[in-house]
């Protein structure tokens, strides 16, 4: 047993693509009348800086628009079904990082999957990859509102560090796997940051101190 403390991002690391974007696509196919509010809030989200405080505000607006009039139990069931559906599609679980995840579990490391994705999906996806209860998983939490389902806790940026500590994963971390500079609060607290297929934009946005000790997986 190595006893390392290891953190994985999910979208782009343990899943090819973005789970929340896929949920939005399916919601719009089912309810096309939601397109105008989702398109407007989604555009503002896309234009915001990835480390700006506005990022979380626009994320909340997009989710509220897409889940207008919904009940939380129905949304949670839909997210679990989405995980099952995507898991059944070949090639969506990246081989190298999933093998790394399973290897850390087998070595007895303490593993946290920390995602900005919606928490019911995160829990379901991780359980499909590792089995129930093998690792700790955390994502953005939902809540019921009179208008529908809303994003109650956007698990993004510095919030990931706070929530990790709440779950017993206080920094420093031995290894952090991520594909985005939005995870800088995690990456800068890692002995070994692992950047998974990072874009040039991501690499340019990271401080030199992080880049110099990082492993880059292409």
TrEMBL record:
Keywords, alphabetical: Coiled coil
Domain of life assignment: Bacteria
Keyword Membrane: no
A Pfam family per the record: HAD
Coiled-coil annotated residue ranges, if any: 65-92
Alphabetical list of InterPro entries matching this protein: HAD-like_sf (IPR036412), HAD_sf (IPR023214)
Protein name: Haloacid dehalogenase-like hydrolase
The organism of origin for this protein: Aeromicrobium wangtongii
């Amino acid at each position: 047993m190595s006893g390392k403390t290891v953190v994985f991002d999910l979208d782009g690391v343990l899943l090819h693509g973005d789970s929340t974007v896929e949920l939005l696509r399916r919601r719009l196919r089912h309810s096309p009348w939601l397109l105008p509010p989702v398109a407007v809030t989604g555009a503002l989200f896309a234009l915001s800086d990835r480390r700006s405080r506005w990022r979380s505000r626009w994320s909340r607006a997009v989710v509220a628009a897409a889940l207008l009039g919904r009940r939380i139990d129905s949304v949670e069931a839909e997210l679990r079904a989405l995980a099952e559906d995507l898991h059944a599609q070949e090639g969506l679980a990246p081989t190298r990082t999933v093998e790394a995840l399973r290897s850390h579990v087998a070595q007895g490391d303490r593993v946290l999957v920390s995602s900005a994705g919606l928490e019911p999906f995160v829990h379901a996806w991780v359980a499909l990859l590792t089995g129930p209860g093998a690792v700790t998983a955390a994502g953005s939490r939902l809540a019921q509102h009179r208008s529908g389902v809303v994003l109650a806790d956007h698990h993004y940026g510095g919030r990931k560090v706070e929530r990790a500590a709440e779950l017993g994963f206080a920094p420093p971390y031995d290894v952090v796997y991520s594909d985005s500079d939005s995870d800088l609060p995690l990456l800068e607290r890692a002995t070994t940051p692992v950047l998974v297929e990072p874009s040039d934009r991501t690499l340019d946005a990271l401080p030199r101190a992080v880049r110099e000790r990082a492993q880059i997986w292409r």
